[in-house]
Design goal:
The structure is a homodimer.
Chain A lengths: L3 H25 L6 H4 L1 H5 L19 H8 L2 H42 L3 H7 L25 H34 L10 E5 L10 H12 L4 E8 L2 H29 L11 E3 L9 E3 H26 L1 E9 L2 H8 L11 E4 L15 H21 L1 H10 L2 H7 L4 H4 L2 H33 L5 H32 L1 H9 L5 H36 L1 H13 L4 H8 L6 H19 L5 H23 L10 H26 L10 H16 L2 H4 L3 H4 L9 H8 L2 H8 L4 H5 L45
Antiparallel strand pairs in A: 1-5, 1-6, 2-5, 3-4
Helix pairs in contact in A: 1-19, 4-23, 5-7, 5-22, 5-23, 7-24, 7-25, 9-10, 9-29, 10-29, 12-16, 12-17, 13-16, 16-17, 17-19, 17-22, 19-23, 20-21, 22-23, 22-24, 24-25
Chain lengths: 773, 773
């Protein structure tokens, strides 16, 4: 339970941090040396950062970025940042809308109704309950007396909240589907629109090659539209060799740059100093060698090895999966939603994810493996969600200062220094929490990948789902339960003493502590948006890392670029955390309406910040076509469902007989979720044929589509080989079937180059290859 | 609880009835006048009934039919009786297999183990339980003492039973899918293979006609393969007029036949007597008119009315649904599984059911209506299943003889007759049960139709599902509960008196009465197969009805044919009843293995009888392509699940600690059901493209396909109109779009008549029109 003064102090601190960070951002973002940190997306597109509206001293007006974020249109956002980022920003719009319209009723009507009652006062006077309320609790539903007719207003609030959410979510879903349809029917076609993946290919007949098998099958069922196939092969060795080769090349470039630099330096003279390093781990021990020679040798040694391995892989390690290419968007969309074999465990054809999102490793996980893996992962996730806090508690209990000094006596002298001791004592208990929570997203991503999912965006969504249940269970439920138990320790003792320790009295205790908990969650939310968004906008950490790297490590242009590479939005911890906020806001909207303005502020500031980041900072690694929306939609509904159940419970605690009128609400939510799933979700699974049939103006060439789907470690090595021609019509083609390209096809044959545009390769080459781990 | 002597009497009686019915069948089935009753399917195909293996006196050897049933191959069965009937017979094969392999372990091992223990004896000696066991109970698991190590054998029996079922069901599903694929890729294509239905067509733009809208949409998305559309129209008035016209025609033919007959009879002389009838209801009152004139007038009057109505309907009552035709099987199979609009509540395209199974009335039930209807129907079904017995009990309580004579005093003189009184007293209590149970299938079919399902076979399956839960709940659970309560009334009283009336003691009471209940279910099953299949085979009721009708009512050839028309298999009460038997057998297989031979006999005799009926008697009205199988498969698994839960409960009652080893079984069943659903079920929803792509030799003409899907009441009336040419290119075509037929198409254009065969119209015209109620 938080006192009013504590609440204001906490809010004030967060606000100060926020103002400070915004000022830092305004100051730093115009420095020329910082531009790659604050406008990387613009720089990568070759655009100039916006002109500063300076207020002098090189400081931008602190709201200039907000103006720019506000003025960008939806089309611009999709064009610049991609549909995924636009959908993520749109999530903030929708959250603002839902909270705003809920507030319209809840804030001006429910707060006065609560404030003019005096339940808390009565309770505080009652010595039996020994309750202790702050003035903030007086404007929440807890201040209304049991069985009071005033509760009707709160009940109406519950309905208002639910219907506002349904209405806005429905409109939002429709809007996103339209965005998606526009994206899919775009006149500039994308390579994945001509492509499907096929899994669970049955074993080949004796002597038959995989390509022959796949080609024969698809030529029979799609005689007019099937172009060619690319068989999935085992890549672990190839990608390892390729990574070694890439490292060697980078090291060589680095060494050459160091050598060039040393020439210009006065100390070594015009000949410069050839850089040297030791061959042991981290260059710490071993023979000292000339770096340029060493890495050149290494490259010469690795390149033929890689080519040999590529050759071997293509013929010997073919798996029961393939990527297949069609000559039109419509044909690929059709094939992707059709059942090809009467048995679902053979020839499963799916729409291809975007090339960079394809998880090559998971392509050959078979049907039955997927079934088992899925179940095992769900089980592990369940235990993680429910019991993750237990090891944290255990570790925290163990890592006390006396324990540490006992088991690690050598740290004693350090620990005995006063300041260090104070610091360790203050932060040690939270260390376990921080470390374990930081590990969680990685763990959940690994779990989701283990399910056998074949696209990165799907893995991220699966992990987000798991994370959402984790935070709701541990933050929302966990805090409510622990908060009640610890906050009401006295009350519990009293009840016990009075022999009055029944299930009902416990429920009432929980009920009584619900509205005070809201105050805690308000500070939680405001810290998140003030400090969190301030930090996000000011990008202090990447800024410092960049400048350090640039100064001490980077020698080549490529290394500098890698140092400021912004990366994509981190949906994985962001989306579930944002969803937690709306879940909290909806849950307390009626019980403690004061949370609403804070929820609103969270999403409103978030809207500006994330829009700014989408437009100017982050560069998507891949596009999923807004597939995050159904995920967000259904989690908001989970939040609403939790909220309705909470209300049901709290109205019961208030002994309000008409609480039965709230019972239909959770069922309505289930029904609404079911209807939305039936009506809207299918268009996220498949591309509607009517959409795929729309006219295409710019089509990629078949070879560019195939290249987009070929893993970089199979493509790139070969460029360095002298006998590239021999290679090209040689063994590599084994894994790529060749059929004559049709002239009447929608896909441009290499001949009509006039129409064909190469697929825009992302600026940063490192991002462009499908993930092979 | 059934005593041993009662059990044997009951079995003996059933067996006598069976022998008698088989003898009657052997005797009657060779009489020439009875052939239409015993071999209608053969006669309709123009084949001769099989030659009799007579044993003299015109009696066939009683096992001749069994020989014939045995010798027919699977292909013959599909060819003659259709895939649906073959799947229904195959269900019997599978049940026999499951029960046989279960028996292999349970009968020779579990029965001796139970018989050599003496728990029942001990219980009977114990005055506290006052138990009363028959000798049959001594060979069931109840006779094993609590906590005995002998229970291990029964536990293994549980596993054996489960794995036998899994294995056989999996093989069976594969087999049925192969049958289905063979059927679908048959060289002789069926009209529904070129057809899809489309529902939820959005409102037309102003001034645009439905046909233009549908054609424009599908010409855009399937430019190469779309042929034409047939818009669904409101048919209630048309079909009423058409029915009146058909009645008038039949009556005219009847009257003419009566007139012809009277000419040949000596009484009236060569001129004959013109038949007359009264115009009032049932010909009981009103003006007497000349029948031939009256019905001729009526036909003249109705025909133009019908044509006018057809015209009006086609233009004015167009609904938001259509039937669309493609030029190849592959194209229709593709379209039927594709999402056409990004929104699922628009342009839903589904594979067409077979024309005669299409429920025209439900075609325009909109997406949201279907959602609501489905939920409402499920709710009503739930209440029906749980509470249907209550009104039966109430009515039974009310319809006692004293009550009847009190409220209906005029029946008193009849009731006072001794024999009548005895009869009424004996059967009155069951009258309510019989009437209500007879109404149930009709009610469930009506409920299923109200869901908005568009094919008759699907409606039947939906009703079967509901019925299955009804019989399992009411027969299996109901009898177990009521049997225990009434059978143990004494025990309950004793427990109450002893102040020992706890939940546990009740559970033990249920447990103790489980094996004795098995005896009741054995008599239940044997009555069903002996009397039930005897009656089915001998067809006494249709035989008597036919001869009565033929003698007194039928005058025209068509009327005679209608009198013996065999109709299709009645899957609706048959399938759930058969499923109840396997549920009972599986549930008691381990607890009271004696049930196994009886279950085996049920399905073995059923196999012969139903195979005979499929080959020689029933004529399918429509084909669903074996879609009943997934339904049967999952209901058998429900039975297994019930069985595993029962075992869990009963092992607990036996205080067997290793009962925990049984806990994985129900989960395994859920997993197995889930895997089968994922792997095998999709091929029942959609036609695999690989299957649809196989070569077609005989294709129907487009016009014959369209005609097959046009409701009879729109087709037939027009034949009688003089100005048929004017009509044909006139308004009727409004509801049928016309696009030029493609020459390169898979579907034969009317020109190449050489290849095209008309779709075989079923012998009985009355069966051929889609249902319009």
């Amino acid at each position: 339970m938080v006192s009013t003064s504590g609440f204001i102090t906490s809010l004030g601190t967060s606000f100060l941090i926020f103002v400070l960070l915004i000022l830092i951002f305004s100051f730093l973002s115009r420095r020329k040396s910082n531009l790659p940190i604050y406008y990387p997306a613009l720089l990568l597109k070759g655009k100039a950062p916006p002109e500063p509206e300076s207020i002098g001293c090189g400081i931008r007006t602190p709201w200039a970025w907000m103006k720019e974020a506000w003025h960008a249109t939806g089309e611009e956002l999709v064009e610049i940042a991609g549909l995924d980022a636009a959908v993520y920003v749109y999530f903030h719009t929708i959250a603002v809308k839902i909270i705003f319209w809920t507030s319209i009723f809840c804030v001006p009507i429910l707060i006065p109704i609560a404030a003019t009652d005096n339940n808390n006062e009565l309770q505080a006077q009652d010595p039996a309950t020994a309750a202790n309320f702050s003035s903030l609790d007086n404007i929440a539903m807890g201040n209304v007396q049991n069985k009071s007719p005033r509760l009707w207003a709160f009940l109406i609030g519950g309905y208002w909240l639910s219907f506002v959410t349904y209405y806005i979510l429905r409109e939002a879903y429709k809007h996103v589907i339209e965005l998606r349809a526009k994206d899919q029917s775009h006149v500039r076609a994308k390579p994945e629109q001509f492509t499907c993946v096929v899994r669970d290919i049955p074993p080949t007949a004796k002597e038959e090659s995989r390509e022959a098998q796949v080609d024969a099958f698809f030529k029979q069922v799609h005689p007019e539209t099937y172009e060619k196939s690319l068989i999935v092969t085992g890549l672990s060795k190839t990608s390892k060799l390729w990574a070694e080769l890439e490292t060697a090349k980078a090291k060589l470039a680095h060494a050459e740059a160091v050598f060039e630099e040393s020439k210009s330096k006065s100390k070594a003279g015009p000949d410069g100093v050839r850089p040297q390093h030791r061959t042991g781990k981290f260059g710490l021990y071993g023979k000292k060698v000339d770096s340029i020679e060493f890495w050149s040798e290494k490259i010469k040694e690795l390149t033929p090895k890689l080519v040999e391995e590529q050759r071997r892989t293509a013929t010997e390690e073919q798996k029961g999966a393939a990527i297949i290419f069609f000559n039109s968007r419509r044909a690929a969309a059709e094939a992707g939603q059709e059942r090809h074999s009467p048995f679902a465990d053979r020839w499963e054809v799916l729409p291809a994810p975007e090339p960079r999102a394809l998880v090559w490793d998971n392509m050959d996980v078979t049907f039955y493996q997927r079934l088992v893996r899925e179940k095992v992962v769900y089980l592990i996730t369940f235990f993680t969600v429910v019991f993750y806090m237990i090891p944290i508690g255990l570790v925290a209990a163990f890592t006390t200062l006396p324990n540490l000094t006992k088991y690690l006596p050598f740290i004693k002298p350090i620990v005995d220094i006063g300041v260090v001791k104070a610091l360790i004592e203050a932060y040690l208990p939270q260390l376990a929490l921080i470390v374990f929570l930081a590990l969680l997203p990685k763990l959940l991503l690994t779990l989701s990948k283990a399910e056998g999912i074949i696209s990165l965006d799907h893995i991220v969504r699966a992990a987000c789902g798991k994370m959402y249940y984790f935070v709701v269970f541990n933050v929302f439920l966990g805090f409510t339960i622990f908060g009640t138990v610890f906050g009401s320790a006295d009350s519990i003792k009293q009840l016990k003493a009075a022999g009055n320790f029944s299930f009902n009295s416990i429920i009432e205790l929980f009920g009584a502590s619900l509205p005070p908990n809201a105050t805690y969650f308000i500070t939680f939310i405001s810290f998140k948006f003030l400090a969190g968004y301030g930090l996000e906008l000011s990008r202090l950490v990447p800024l410092i890392v960049y400048h350090l790297k640039k100064k001490y490590l980077c020698k080549t242009e490529k290394e500098v670029q890698e140092a400021w590479a912004p990366g994509p939005f981190e949906y994985m911890p962001n989306v579930p955390n944002d969803l937690l906020v709306i879940t909290l806001t909806l849950s307390y909207a009626v019980i403690a309406p004061l949370i609403l303005p804070f929820g609103l502020a969270y999403y409103a500031i978030g809207w500006f910040v994330q829009r700014n980041q989408a437009l100017k900072v982050y560069v998507p690694e891949y596009e999923s076509g807004g597939r995050m929306w159904p995920h967000i939609h259904s989690r908001i509904l989970v939040g609403l469902f939790v909220s309705q159940i909470t209300m049901l419970g709290y109205f019961s605690v208030k002994k309000f007989a008409y609480v039965v009128l709230l019972i239909p609400l959770p069922f309505l939510t289930l029904l609404f979720a079911n209807v939305c799933h039936k009506v809207y979700y299918p268009s996220f699974r498949y591309v509607a044929i009517a959409v795929a049939s729309e006219e295409v103006k710019e089509v990629p060439t078949l070879s560019s589509v195939v290249a987009a789907f070929t893993p970089t470690c199979l493509l790139e090595g070969s460029n360095d080989v002298k006998d590239i021609d021999k290679y090209d019509d040689g063994s590599f083609q084994d894994a790529e079937s060749h059929l004559p390209s049709k002239t009447s096809s929608g896909i441009a044959s290499p001949a009509d180059g006039a129409l064909a545009i190469p697929i825009a390769s992302p600026a940063d080459g490192a991002l462009a290859h499908p993930i092979v781990e």
